[in-house]
Amino acid sequence: MNARIAWRFVITAAIIAWCIFSLLPIKDTPFSEYVRDRATDKQAEFAEFLKQADANVEKAREIDLKAHDAKVAAEAKGDVYLPDAKRAQFAAENRTLFLAARTLAKEQKIDLASFFTDIRVADIKNLDKRNDVLMRELLRQSRGKTKLGLDLKGGVSFTLALDESAFKEAGSDPERRAKAMEHVVSILSNRINSLGVAEPLIRVRGGNSVEVQLPDVNTKEHPEAIDILKKPAKLEFRLVHPTIQTAAEVLAIPAEELPTGYEILYSEIEDKRTGVITEYPVLVKRMAEATGSIVEDASPTMSPNGGYEVALKFTSKGGDTFEEITRKIAEENKRTGRVGQLAIILDKKLASHPRVEKPIAGGRASISGNFSQREVFELANVLNNPLEFELKLVEMNEVGSSLAADARDSSMKAVVIGAGLVVLLMLVIYTFAGLTAVFAVILNLIMILGVQASLGATLTLPGIAALVLTVGMAVDANVLIFERIREELRHGKPLQAALEAGHENAFSTIVDANLTTLITAAILMWMGTGPSRGFGVILAIGLIANLFCVLVFNRALLEFLVNIKLVRKMRFINILPANTKINFFGHRKAAGIIALAVIVAGFVVIGMKGTEKIYSIDFLGGEEMVVQFEKQVPIADIEAVARANGVPEVTAYYQKDLTTGKEQLKIQTAEGQAEKLFTALEKAQPDAQLKQLGVTVIGAVVGDSIKLNALYSLLLAILGILAYIAFRFELGFGIGAVVSTISNILATVGIYVMLGGKFSAPMVAAVLMVTGYGINDTVVIFDRIREELKLNPMMKLLDVINLAVNRTLSRTILTSLTVFIASASLYVFGAGIVKDFAEVFVIGVVFSTFSSIFIASPVFFWWHKGDRKHVESSEFLPKHDWDSGKDA
Q1: Which residues of 305-324 are buried (b: 16+ CB within 10 A; e: fewer)?
Q2: Which of 456, 406, 459, 454 is nearest to 151 (CA)?
Q3: How far apart are the first and last CA of the chain?
Q4: Are the CB atoms for 331 and 230 separated by under 8 Å?
Q5: For the chain, which terminus, N or C, has the lower number of CB atoms within 10 Å?
Q6: Exposure string over 390-415, b if 16+ CB within 10 A, otherwise e
Q7: What is the spatial distance between Cα 594 and Cα 601, in angstroms, rounded to a whole number?
Q8: Average per-residue pLDDT in the chain?
Q9: How many Cβ atoms are within 10 Å of 463's Cβ, its own excluded?
Q10: Residue 834 in contact with residue 826, Cβ under 8 Å?
Q11: How far apart (Å, rounded) are the C-alpha atoms in residues 196 and 535?
């Protein structure tokens, strides 16, 4: 084995080891179980500590149950229930072992780090903060690295309400109130889902509430995890009194003699040696000089003294405002002879009050204070997504899987069958070489899952389906290489030389095809929000992993096997004759008419149906019905009753109140369908003793801003593809690729709607995947046209196009076949959203293959008026007459 091959294996092994490490542990361990055996020191003492914490958890549970019963009894009498504040606080602080242990440690001044000597928290001097950081680390360690979505595992649901004062400007105008609520949803989405991979469900409920469902989140153990969502992050810059500055001076002023327009706020000062925190009074002006609106970006950073702070970057106008504020302080310094201070107020609390000696220009500042690393990250996040008003937690529930067990099982079966069929096809066509490709694809999947886990991405069933389709698409690069090797072997080259030449000839094609798709991914990550950004992240991971596995690992493996003589021949099964001579170009007009007819028909059907019939609840919103029951009804039975009674779209799941343990059924339907479904369910399930508790209007998951961002990012991606292909090839190729891509999108959407499909958030991702696949296919043919133009300098452009399409035909068919088999398996054997997802892809694969052959190349030919001289000279706008190729 030579050094080059050895290094490739070493790098691959290191990356795969990291990915596997990122995936482990796969499953969660309940915190109450995990922590009992986790202590590294003083185990007996820790066991006694946990015994006391367990007793407090049980006591809190009893308080919650009694409070619930008392509330129900009071409401039945028409009275208002007022809970005992002290008992309610005890219950809130001890509902889970996590909370009870932390509360008990705080009360008894116990250093929990003494039980866990392997966790490094000794640098945190403050005892309460040290215990808090340690407990959060233990909670993190108890969690599995692979997060499952709401459809597979469920999660936690909570409702946050906005006070009526938040609608002061909107008044009673429903449209303005709806816009205000959509703004709140957008901010919450950004706070939770900056990378777009968390897969939360966020929608408006009623007129002033937002429902947030977080998949696989341990809010049950740690309710404070939602605090970051509730914070308004109202940032203010205020002046500190110019002459009354020390603690003694402030405390010496009687409350009734405070200077007009000023108030006392307290700053927390931590002694770095002992960790003791003391409060320092500061006399601060009530009116703000500026608010958080002058801040463009906030980011966590290290302070010069080794602590943590938040760096602020101001807007251009904000920088001028901040400079003016600090100039005012500096000028006041000259009058008073003292150094003035600027108070930075966050949510009415004094975060810091730095001294200002001179005007601060440059558009930057920082917020320093008694922050931990976690706190500065959270603070930067909320400052970048500020809410004007604080949200109030109304209810919090544990929600079950939204996918019926049989649908989940059948879809997972479809995933296995699809992947298996792709593997089988590769082994049949390419025999031993196909086996190496299968190894490369397995490593590709491990890398994708490992990176996803490290990013905290959530795995949903449509996501798993997308992985299967990624397997089909990942085969593409291997097929390109194998087909090139096949050509070299036909020319009589020995195996080792054919292997080398095959990789070299396919390299630029593979890179071009993947880079064009990577441009799409990058723009979706940059411009998109929510599902669009998440798709861009996952697509980018898959493309980079695929390039590595094919160009590094699989090449090293093939070269190694050939070098040690384990492989002496490569036997490939021919699915087509060696030199096909089909006149594809001659059918361009008929193909163009077919494509145009399909697109026009799609537009007509969409126009006739209207948005209400082509969009799902994800886009339109609907109704949510809360149902009480005596006997649980299987979700599959609810869906069956809905279908039998003409209720087109239903999402049902069970939720459990985290305080009382009471369980309820929630059913989401299109507008006006809830009552109809409930009546049918009562009749079909009399033993369940169903009782409707209420129906609430719910908003869309995919808001207008997300739809617009998805559209803008897709358009920008198309322009990016045009620019890249124009740069790497020339403009005519870029125009052909763009026209082909647009026709793919329009035809796929049109056919899907004509077949009765509705668009949900996962369907958007499916269309984007089709777009990426179609670009890949088109670039492969274009790359071969460019190559054949060099190899055949006397051949007409029309003949070169036909030759290139025929030379890549076996690759086109094989790649399309693998992806088609994978998506068809998901469609035939899958259920629910997976079936819809696969349907979009089946349509997309067929039309992408069609357009890459019959649309992209003819558009390129038309742009250059059939004259290859325009291609070779890269003329931007060819103006010559048609040459003899016009009569083809």
Answers
A1: eebbbbbbebeeebbebbbe
A2: 459
A3: 53
A4: no
A5: N
A6: ebeeeebbbbbbbbbeebbebbbebb
A7: 10
A8: 85
A9: 23
A10: yes
A11: 8
Residue 210 has φ and ψ, to the nearest 5°, of: -125, 130
Relative to beta strand 458-459, strand 147-148 is parallel
CA atoms within 13 A on the CB side of 274: 5
Q: Is the pLDDT of residue 808 over 70?
A: yes
In whole angstroms, give the CA distance from residue 645 to residue 639. 10
Q: What angle do CA 141, 146, 152 make, to 5 degrees?
A: 125
Provide the percentage of residues in the chain whose pLDDT is more than 90.
Answer: 28
Q: Is 628 helix (H, G, I), strand (E, B) or coil?
A: strand
CB 848 within 8 A of CB 777: yes
**Torsion angle, CA of 469/473/475/476, rounded to 10 degrees?**
160
- CA dist 498 and 490 (Å) reads 9
Cα–Cα distance for residue pair 625/90, rounded to 1 Å: 33
Phi, psi at 136, each rounded to 5°? -65, -35
Residue 393 pLDDT grade (very low, low, confident, very high; cuts 50, 70, 90): confident
Give the β-pairing of 209-215 and 391-399: unpaired
Query: What distance in Å separates the CA atoms of residue 830 and residue 412, rounded to the nearest whole number?
Result: 7
The position carrying tokens 């593997």 is 423
Q: What is the mean pLDDT of residues 591-615?
A: 90
Scored b (16 or more CB within 10 A) or e, 340-358 reads bbbbbbbeeebbbbeebee
Radius of gyration over every alpha carbon of the chain, rounded to an integer in angstroms: 32
Q: DSSP letter for 790, please.
A: H
What tokens does 412 get? 């997972």
Specify the residue for token string 């030199």.
Answer: 579
Q: Which of 304, 545, 557, 315 is nearest to 445 (CA)?
A: 545
Q: DSSP 3-state assignment of 357?
A: coil
Strand partners, 666: 626, 653
Beta strands at 622-628 and 235-239: parallel, antiparallel or unpaired: unpaired
**How far from 578 is each of 387, 418, 574, 583, 807, CA to CA, in Å?**
65, 29, 8, 16, 9
CA distance 218 to 695: 28
Q: DSSP letter string over 470-488?
A: HHHHHHHHHHHHHHHHHHH
pLDDT digits (tens, 9 = 90+) for 311-366: 889 999 999 999 999 999 999 999 999 999 999 888 888 888 888 888 988 888 88
Measure Cα distances from 458 to 139, 348, 519 in Å. Answer: 18, 35, 23
CB 618 within 8 A of CB 700: yes
Q: How far is the C-alpha of 119 from the C-alpha of 40, rounded, in Å?
A: 10
Q: Is the pTM of this model over 0.90?
A: no
pLDDT in the model for residue 583: 92
At residue 300's C-alpha, the angle toward residues 295 and 305, to 5°, is 115
pLDDT one-digit tens code per residue, 127-162: 888 898 899 889 888 888 888 888 878 888 888 888
Task: Quote the pLDDT of residue 884.
Answer: 44
Region of poorest pLDDT, from 160-174, 357-371, 720-734, 796-810: 160-174
Task: Say how far apart CA 446 and CA 18 lie, in whole Å.
Answer: 10
Give residue for tokens 């003016």.
324
Buried b (16+ CB within 10 A) or exposed e, 639-659: bebbeeeebebbbbbbbbebb
Which residues is 297 bridged to in the sheet?
A: 313
**Beta bridge partner(s), residue 211:** 159, 203
Distance CA 789, CA 480 (A): 19
Lateral strand order in the sheet of 364-368: 295-302, 308-314, 364-368
DSSP-derived pairing of the beta strands 364-368 and 147-148: unpaired
Residue count of the chain, please give it: 888
CB 700 within 8 A of CB 621: yes
